[in-house]
Amino acid sequence: MSAWFDFAIEHLPYVLLGVPTTLGLWVSAMTIGAMLGLVLAWARIYGNRPIYVIATIYVEIFRGTPMLVQMFFIYLGLPEIGIVFDPLTAAVIAIGLNTAAYQAEYLRGAVRSVPMGQMTAARALGMGKFQGFVNIILPQALRRVIPQWSNEAILELKYTSIAYAIGVTEITARAEKIGYETFQFFEVFLLIAAIYVVMTSIVAQLLLLLEKKVSVPGL
Amino acid sequence: MLLRVENIHKSYGAAEILKGVSFDMAPGQSKVIMGPSGTGKSTLLRCINHLTPPDKGRIFVDGEELTAKNLNTMRQKVAFVFQDFNLFTHLRTVENVAIGPRKLRGFGKKAALDLAYKELERVGLSDRADAYPAELSGGQQQRASIARALAMEPKLILFDEPTSALDPELTGEVVSVMNKLASEGMTMLVVSHEIGFARKAADEIIFMEGGKIIEQGPPSQIFNAPQQDRTRAFLNVIEHGDDA
Fold it and tell me: Which InterPro entries match (chain A) (predicted)?
């Protein structure tokens, strides 16, 4: 055990240098996912037929294919038609587009769970559909979606590791490199696992705090 | 006329709910719509502010016709109080009342809150301003929703069975607020079987059956000398609570 600690302390700085990449990738992708997810959820609930169909096809494609395939497609496939991204950008786009599909579905469920009467009351006051959505439905739906959204956020934090496959030097990539240099794969991946657990636990606690802070009786 | 309801028709599929309803209301009047359930009273009320758009017929408020285009501005003149309150769950009581002025009437935050506190005082809820709807009793929720309607400073308030979701001991506090508003000159159109309000505050009772108005007149006439057998039979039931 103490041997592992010595190993961990020796290699920790190199691995930790990947943490900003991992977190940056995660925050960017989650942000893209939240914004696009909101638009998709709106389209799936309130959109007219063509808009609904487009949003539905999007969700089905991005939920129905592996994220790694999507990432390879964006990083390795798109250059063939002249669209080239650096690895980190490709990873942000791939994870962002993928999580958008899931976030849209969670949000759609949360919006649907807000009683109909809330929108009716907003419309009766004189609000338009969009005003009612922004002022009345969304604040309630966002509160209701936090538990599911937290799951998604934690899942995606771990999924940033697949960016390693297209050459992003986030923490998993760095761990693998140490592994091949030292041949101490057991030690290094134990170290990496510990770092992921620390990050996800902090994120989980922060989101739990947020959930408590914005909670309202009866919601 | 403040409100003109002209030949309103509404069908759901093959079922014709409203078969041509017309009446007028002058400013300051209170009218109560009564009649057996399933007779189109609530549908009529919802047609007036197009929560349920009528198939045929026209609605005029203050001489202006309500259409799909001016819906949102016209609804600010015609407030609606729901049977099940529909307060905004995520907002405190005072915010529920302030949100209309704030978002729709161009009030600043402070002015909207000031108005909201004033309207809450009118319905006797000042002490519950900071509570969330889930923390209020049914009667308090309905009074808050009346305050929300008042904060729009509407020309007319539509009440859709405002006491029927309440326990009997809570209806009194809502009815007394409604009586007070009527005496202050608020124009009110109320779907309700609340005899207390109808007798005391209504200028006219509209009795509906089968999607039509079959009788209307001042409460003294409707309650004491109804012209129609159906009206008499119905009033017997609601006044005595049996099948007489």
Answer: AA_ABC_transptr_permease_3TM, ArtM/GltK/GlnP/TcyL/YhdX-like, MetI-like, MetI-like_sf
